[in-house]
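FAQ

Q: What does a record look like?
A: Structure on top, sequence underneath. For example:
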């Protein structure tokens, strides 16, 4: 499999859930989910069939206090 710098958001969310991150739809009805982990909250944009850059996803992990190497490979 060739390395790409992008990850599907569904796969990213699935990996976050495995690490114990709570994911809920944003109550405002926007196209974002709200990730909660150990008292921290971070919005995650969710757009159909969109791939996200691994660097962007690593930043989300850091904001949640998770080692990005556990989630973004």
């Amino acid at each position: 499999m060739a390395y790409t710098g992008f990850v599907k958001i569904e796969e990213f969310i699935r990996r976050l859930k495995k690490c114990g991150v709570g994911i809920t739809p944003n109550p405002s009805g926007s196209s974002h989910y709200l990730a909660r982990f150990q008292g921290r909250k971070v919005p995650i944009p969710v757009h159909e069939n969109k791939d996200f850059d691994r660097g962007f996803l690593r930043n989300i992990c850091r904001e949640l206090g998770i080692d990005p190497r556990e989630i973004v490979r």
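Q: Is there anything notable about this one?
A: The longest strand covers residues 32-37.
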